[in-house]
Amino acid sequence: MSTLTSNVVVQTPEQCAVLSNAKRIVVKVGSSLVTNEGRGLDANAIEHWCRQLAALVADGREVIMVSSGAIAEGMKRLNWATRPKQVHELQAAAAVGQMGLIHMYESKLRAFGVGSAQVLLTHGDLADRERYLNARTTLTTLLDLGVVPVINENDTVVNDEIKVGDNDTLGALVANLVVADALIILTDQVGLYTADPRRDPTAQFVHVARAGDAHLESMAGGAGSLIGKGGMITKVLAAKRAASSGASTVIASGHESDVLLRLCKGEPLGTWLMAQTGKHQARKRWMSDHLQLRGSVVIDDGAVAKVAKEGKSLLPIGMTAVQGDFSRGDVIAVLNARGDEVARGLANYASSEARLLCKKSSAQFEQLLGYAAEPEMVHRTNLVLTLTSS
Ligand code: GLU
Known about the structure:
- The protein has 16 helices and 15 strands.
- By secondary structure, it is α/β, with parallel strands linked by helices.
- It folds into two domains: 7-283, Acetylglutamate kinase-like (Carbamate kinase); 290-385, PUA domain (Archaeosine Trna-guanine Transglycosylase, Chain: A, domain 4).
- It has an eight-stranded mixed β-sheet with strand order 3-4-2-1-5-9-10-8, sandwiched between helices. A five-stranded mixed β-sheet has the order 12-11-13-14-15, sandwiched between helices.
- A hairpin with a 5-residue loop joins β13 (331-335) and β14.
- α9 (214-221) packs antiparallel against α11.
- It binds glutamic acid (GLU).
- Glutamic acid is lined by residues 30-31, 68-72, 94, 152-153, 155, 166-167.
């Protein structure tokens, strides 16, 4: 991939490959697209995206839909012509509208042979380590099952302290949560311009740039710019956020025919905001940033081969000892029999539970713990090989 600068650069085939190679993709669609500018759910548009989502799933991709539109649809169903100012009325509208929204996705996806699941999140859920991990486990389980999670903010319960506030940001948080390869933000505009093209003849379309580029933020948020008014700043900031876990972002028009399929073939539609850090590097750096690990597990040679050579999850059956005192969600070291660090990862079990699970198969977990939880001690998506020594 070419080095990106703050200037607009021409997209290269290598950059396009980001999406053609993407396995796990988060797609976000905004209220104005979903509800046809507030005129009610746009069944044709939703069907159009669902058909593409189903084709992507059939192609072996894992797709998450983050969809807005609950409040707009709720207002329509309640015959409210203007958006209410009172928070409790907005929350009521969201509760009414979410019903229609999820029903529409469920029925359209089902018609294309794909299962769907409703997941409503708040910032409070993602800030709490335990709930964050639970959300991640649920989402990755759904993806493993070939189901498309349809996510929205849980508007009915949020207040200013716990809300994400906009679904561009929610899309980025979800991309980080599941360590997606790409975030596609579908909007009613074709992408990002350097200025308002209706007023400024020198305005240029931004085909590709570096996510997190300060120049982009000033462009997207600039006074009087069309893109600023169109909510582009939240998209640019979402791209920056998603880039922290290695996901690149594309901002493209949801009206474009087969937009998702074409993007996923690498067609250069819309604006591509490229993550500079590879997914693996971002995870590795995040794990490596943990200077003080709270504990470790020692694994046998068979488990070392599975984890280090075959890219498998770490299962308790391969664990011979547990050291230290750690909680579910802590970063722990994975050591071979000689005590060398082979990998690091997020523990699915606290040390006290892990001790009970050493050398045990998952069939015994429920009896040992009193509940059935994940079969892995560290899931492969939360595991980074460190191999500091052989
Ligand atoms: N969660 C809100 C809704 O479904 C939308 C938030 C947004 O569009 O950014 O109405």
